[in-house]
Write a structure and sequence with these properties.
Strand content: 15-25%
Structural class: alpha/beta
CATH topology of the largest domain: Rossmann fold
Radius of gyration: 21 Å
Helix content: 40-55%
Order of helices and strands: EHHEEHEEHHEHEHEHEHEHEHEHEHHH
Number of strands: 13
Number of helices: 15
Distance between the termini: 14 Å
Shape: globular
């Protein structure tokens, strides 16, 4: 098999899809598959993600998320004579391969178009229906995303395979001394509340801020709330709410915290809160559970699927419900211990080795048609 994997997103932006591409490539390399892989990466990426001897880097001029990328990337792919091209950021070129597999991580832009900028809405909405029709097969991060593809875009269920993501093995419980060393770099002490994710509307950070304010007012906690994640789009409301709720001294924005520190930050947290209106998978919840942190997540989309019985579910539209769950975890020690034990077991069910094997099986299935 001659397989291409579009990894241009790794240079374009840091975040969930970039991590997905990097970890999938590494896991595929570990399988020692009988295939040659071409890794299509940005020409500006001077350290392309090529983790094995059968992975060949291909520098591409076509930028990720460019309005002409369907055709420009197709021209660049023609010379590779690919049996299959996997597009992890869901938009395949219009040509340049024999078969196509795409990964659809979520349909946030269909569910909540108001949460995107006008430019982003145009980019995604013009592409998704075409991409779903064009692909020979679709990988979905969760059963929830698969259901969305069927109900919202009329994709045939038999054309979609759910392949769950996983936390990187680096996410694990750490010794207390190591945790304190990491969190001290951010002027924190263990026991803070944590939220991880790009600052954008669907993450529902304002709802979390309101819930946190009520905890402070009730004197349930005086621990800070740490928000880890870069600025995405339409994020001004978050900073405005911090000011309006008089939380400037209590909310810590940890922009640019590297992944190596994120392990320690999960370990040092009293809990992770992910009250998102929508998540295609919700990797931070899985990473936090792998580190032993209790998790509170919205009762929406993929999040209940990811946390199973290990997490507490809340209504993201109800800050009081979020506050009640936060208070329970902070004040009920037996509950925290139970959530930690269940969370570690739940996270262990998801591995990148399993994800890579299932992805490779899809490649083979598509090429055998």
């Amino acid at each position: 098999m001659v397989i291409g994997i579009d990894a241009r997103i790794v240079h374009y932006t840091r975040g969930g899809i970039s991590n997905y591409v990097s970890r999938l490539l590494a896991a595929l390399a570990a399988l020692d598959a009988d295939a040659d892989f071409y890794v299509l990466h940005s020409r500006k990426d001077h350290i392309p993600p090529t983790p094995g001897p059968n992975f060949c880097p291909v520098a591409c001029w076509t930028p990720a998320h460019h309005r002409w990328e369907r055709w420009a990337l197709g021209v660049e792919a023609l010379r590779l004579r690919l049996d299959l091209l996997h597009s992890p950021d869901f938009i395949p070129p219009a040509f340049g391969y024999r078969r196509s597999v795409i990964t659809v991580h979520d349909l946030n832009f269909v569910h909540y178009p108001q949460f995107l900028t006008a430019q982003s809405r145009r980019y995604y909405n013009r592409q998704i229906e075409w991409a779903v029709r064009r692909a020979d097969h679709i990988l979905a991060d969760s059963h929830a995303t698969k259901s969305d593809l069927v109900s919202l875009l009329d994709a045939p269920p038999e054309k979609i395979t759910t392949v769950h993501l996983a936390a990187d093995p680096a996410f694990r419980p750490l010794p207390e001394a190591e945790v304190r060393q990491v969190v001290a770099r951010y002027n924190l002490e263990p026991g803070y509340l944590l939220c991880v994710g790009t600052l954008e509307p669907r993450k529902n950070v304002p709802g979390l801020l309101e819930a946190y304010r009520s905890l402070l007012d009730a004197k349930i906690t005086d621990a800070p709330l740490a928000l880890v994640g870069g600025k995405g789009w339409l994020y001004d409301d978050i900073f405005e709410r911090v000011t309006e709720l008089h939380l400037t001294g209590q909310v810590r924005f940890l922009h640019g915290a590297p992944d190596a520190d994120l392990v320690g930050l999960y370990n040092g947290a009293a809990l992770l809160a992910t009250p998102s209106f929508y998540e295609g998978f919700g990797l931070p919840a899985l990473e936090a559970m792998a580190c032993g942190a209790p998790v509170i997540v919205a009762d929406r989309a993929s999040l209940p699927e990811v946390v199973g019985e290990a997490g507490l579910l809340v209504d993201p539209d109800d800050p009081d419900d979020i506050a009640r769950a936060l208070a329970r975890v902070l004040t009920e020690q037996p509950l925290r211990a139970r959530m930690r034990e269940r969370g570690l077991a739940q996270a262990a069910r998801f591995t990148w080795g399993k994800a890579a094997r299932e992805t490779l099986d899809v490649y083979r299935m598509v090429l055998e048609r």
